[in-house]
Amino acid sequence: MLNNLFTTKNSWAVYKKLLKSASSYWKIFLIGVVGTLLAAAADTYLTWMIKPIIDKGLVAHNKLFLAWMPVLIVAGFIVRGGMLFVSNYFIVRVGRSVVMDFRQKIFAHMLHLPASFFDRESSGQLLTLFLYSSDQLSSATTEATQTILQEGSQLIGFIVLMFVVSWKMSLLFIITVPLVTLIINHASKRLRMLNSKVQKTIGDIAHSAEELIQGYRVIRIFGGENYERKKFNKTSQHNRQCEMKVVVTNSLSTSAVQIIAALPIAMILYVMNLPFFHISVGSFGAIFAAMARLLTPIRRLTKIHVELQKGLTAANSIFNLLDCPKEQDTGALHSHRIKGKIEYRHVKFKYPEGHKNVLRDINFIAEPGKTVALVGRSGSGKSTLVSLLPRFYDVIDGEILIDDVNSKEYTLKSLRQQFALVSQNVILFDDTIARNISYGLFNEATEEKIMQAVEAAYLNDFVKQLPLGLETMIGENGHLLSGGQRQRIAIARAILKDAPILILDEATSALDTESEYYIQAALENLMRKRTTVVIAHRLSTVEKADTIMVMDQGKIIESGNHQELIAKNGQYAKLYKMQFKVNSQEGKLTKQQESA
């Protein structure tokens, strides 16, 4: 899990790793630190001025000194205000830069993570890393550091001032430090645990919201509104409970620290009444003011550990992600364009979390330019078999050869350049039609080539009707288009890539009858020049395939062309007759409805 709990033992290691990541901005950060220290010095100076104003100005009636006081005080506030601006601007700039860097690192790393990672992790948790967790990093890197420096330097400045004026009275304050340390340490341990839970609940909320957005049609059609609302409310309540536990822990620890910090002030007032204790009015005023002002940095410092623990918890999750191993790219062979021969030799495969093989002793050869069709019941292993070709997964036994070379010997980039994909679940991007068709080929695809692909996919009439033509935005995953239009854009994308191996996964299933006829013809022309692997449930779409392989429970149980398999009267023949019967019944029903 990315958001696993972490302890005091490794929290310091996480913090050092986080600060190391921000070290490239040390010059900018140093400017902010200097501003912080000068602002704290100005604060201490303004507090110390109480002593001479009372003793030298008011008690001794030094009019010349009093005349200069307004100038010195205004100058002190100008320095303090200017330095606070410098501190805030430069330190916050570092914080936002760190957030930007980590978001870019997360995105870049996820582009190269294996398919098993995305199968394992919740999309809601991953979105939380991008949005919530990465944003929390600024709390741990710069905001917490700024508060520690700013309030810590004020704390030190006021304590030094108190000892300079009267070390005896200042000792009363020092005795409270062990108690404050004990409270903060105990609260920090609990906050680490609670913030890990908060982060997970935020991921759960994001996941529920994503399911609502993607599945709203299913939810409404099947009347799942109440169920989804109750499920989301339960998740939200759990998040609120975790958040409130953080608030309670923080409030109790902060209140306890402030009560303890207030005790020395009461003790000083008591000591002032003792006959053997003597101090000037100005000295008492300066110490009392310093102690009163100490409460603010103490309060902020006790609160900062909440933000610090949030940031460290988020950083721990992000570092766990960045430590996830990338896809194994051990190949060294680069090939501009292969011929397209595919061979599976005794291939076995099981998923990382699985207990049994989903592919068992797969053997077949697809010659260049030939079409191989995979048919069989759902769950028979067709999609898994195809996913091994571009090495989304690696075989556990046996080997896959591309042009008589083990696919692992190719670099991943070179290997995947040899494939084009059209699947049932079309993935389009929130961009123009042209950029979706030319995806991955932006620098190579001319408008003429794009239009050729558009015509081959029978999109020409549709594109001409649009005011902006190819530059029309299609919305998130092409939600502004019909299912057939989305699929034809995916087909045009595959046509434009002109790869030697074509993977068609239910490629025509979402098309109406007329569109399917024309696109099937276009695909047949395209398939003549390249090796094609077709996954289909509708057997009518693969009758012309050179080889049809029937799969069942991870094995190839029959192989041959359409006529050969029908003649065998085996599993393929049974599936074909069953679908032919279903199609005939559907055709009769359609005619009856039309006549009615």
What keyword list fits this structure?
single chain, alpha/beta, Rossmann fold, six-stranded mixed beta sheet, four-stranded antiparallel beta sheet, 64% helix, 9% strand
Task: Summarize this structure briefly.
This protein has 596 residues and is an alpha/beta fold. The chain has helices at 8-21, 26-48, 50-59, 63-110, 115-120, 123-165, 167-174, 177-214, 216-221, 225-271, 281-322, 382-387, 412-416, 433-437, 447-456, 460-465, 483-497, 513-527, 562-568, 571-595, and strands at residues 342-349, 359-366, 371-376, 397-402, 405-406, 419-422, 501-505, 531-535, 547-552, 555-560. Helix content is 64%, strand content 9%.
Walkthrough of the structure:
By secondary structure, the protein is an alpha/beta fold. It folds into three domains: 190 residues, ABC transporter type 1, transmembrane domain (ABC transporter transmembrane region fold, Up-down Bundle), CATH 1.20.1560.10; 112 residues; 253 residues, Rossmann fold. Helix content is 64%, strand content 9%. It contains 20 helices and ten strands. The strands form two sheets. Strands 6-7-8-3-9-10 form a six-stranded mixed beta sheet. The protein has a four-stranded antiparallel beta sheet with strand order 2-1-4-5, with no helix packed on it. Helix 10 runs antiparallel to helix 11. The two termini are 59 Å apart.
Total number of domains: 3
CATH class of the largest domain: Alpha Beta
Which fold does the CATH topology of the largest domain refer to?
Rossmann fold
Tell me the strand percentage band.
5-15%
Helicity range: 55-70%
User: So what's the overall shape?
Assistant: elongated
